[in-house]
UniProtKB/TrEMBL annotation:
Pfam assignment, any one: Zona_pellucida
Gene: LOC102351030
Lineage: Eukaryota, Metazoa, Chordata, Craniata, Vertebrata
A molecular-function term among this protein's GO annotations: structural constituent of egg coat
Residue intervals of the ZP domain: 1-166
Superkingdom in the source lineage: Eukaryota
Protein name, per record: Zona pellucida sperm-binding protein 3
Reported function: Component of the zona pellucida, an extracellular matrix surrounding oocytes which mediates sperm binding, induction of the acrosome reaction and prevents post-fertilization polyspermy. The zona pellucida is composed of 3 to 4 glycoproteins, ZP1, ZP2, ZP3, and ZP4. ZP3 is essential for sperm binding and zona matrix formation.
Membrane topology: Single-pass type I membrane protein
InterPro entries membership: ZP-C (IPR055355), ZP-C_dom (IPR042235), ZP_chr (IPR048290), ZP_dom (IPR001507), ZP_dom_CS (IPR017977)
Places the protein is found: Secreted, Extracellular space, Extracellular matrix; Zona pellucida; Cell membrane
PTM note: Proteolytically cleaved before the transmembrane segment to yield the secreted ectodomain incorporated in the zona pellucida.
Gene Ontology CC entries for this record: egg coat; plasma membrane
Length: 221
């Protein structure tokens, strides 16, 4: 839900924007950043107004690993850094469906094409929680990687809802992988080593977890 009005008076940020990085055995590092309009650099301000577009870039540093393809499994907005706090608003869900774009007053989408295999970008309409006067929100995303040669599927995808066509469309892969965004039944993830096979797993060395949560914020709306 979104408020329909906002004061024209600027709000002075109480905190400096921060991004978090989650390292996996000092090999993989997942990150989220607030970016400027053309994604050329990190945004200097964390203050937005209703009607503004928030540009977010997710990335992973793979160090000495084989190239890995990044996906955003889910994202949730909360009023505190705790992703399980209440109220909470899902932005991306069902293994890569940008469900905020399905809302009537939203134009949120993934930004194609990828700048590189280890990055993924999306636009989010600035919003506030309905009937809540607090102006600060945090966004926590669950990021994961897959093998570069893995074909996108219902579990590994980046799907946006395109209102003119009234349909879900994928960043990569066949359109059918996004059909579950509407039915909200995109399956369960199997063990990643079984999913990739022994040959791929052996190239990943001692990595035991190829996913993690990262948070960006606070955003002052």
């Amino acid at each position: 839900c979104r408020k329909q009005n906002v004061s024209s008076k600027a709000i002075k940020p109480t905190w400096i924007p921060f991004t978090s990085t989650v390292s996996v055995e000092e090999r993989l590092a997942f990150s989220l950043h607030l970016m400027n309009d053309d994604f050329s650099k990190v945004r200097e301000s964390n203050t937005y107004y209703l009607g503004d577009v928030v540009h977010i870039e997710a990335s992973v540093i793979t160090a000495n690993h084989m190239p890995l393809l990044l996906f955003i499994d889910s994202c949730v907005a909360t009023l505190t850094p705790d992703k399980d706090s209440s109220p909470r608003y899902p932005i991306i869900d069902y293994h890569g469906c940008l469900i905020d774009g399905r809302s009537e007053d939203s134009s949120s989408v993934f930004r194609p094409p990828r700048p590189s295999f280890n990055k993924l970008r999306f636009n989010l309409d600035a919003f506030r929680f309905y009937q809540d006067s607090r102006t600060v929100i945090y966004i926590t995303c669950h990021l994961k990687v897959t093998a570069m040669d893995r074909t996108p599927d219902s579990m590994n995808k980046a799907c946006s809802f395109r209102k003119p066509a009234n349909e879900w469309t994928p960043m990569e892969g066949k359109a059918a992988i996004c059909s579950c965004c509407e039915t909200k039944d995109c399956g369960n993830a199997p063990n990643w080593r079984n999913r990739w096979g022994r040959d791929v797993a052996s190239k990943l060395g001692n990595v035991t977890n190829l996913e993690g949560d990262t948070v960006v914020g606070p955003l002052v709306i």
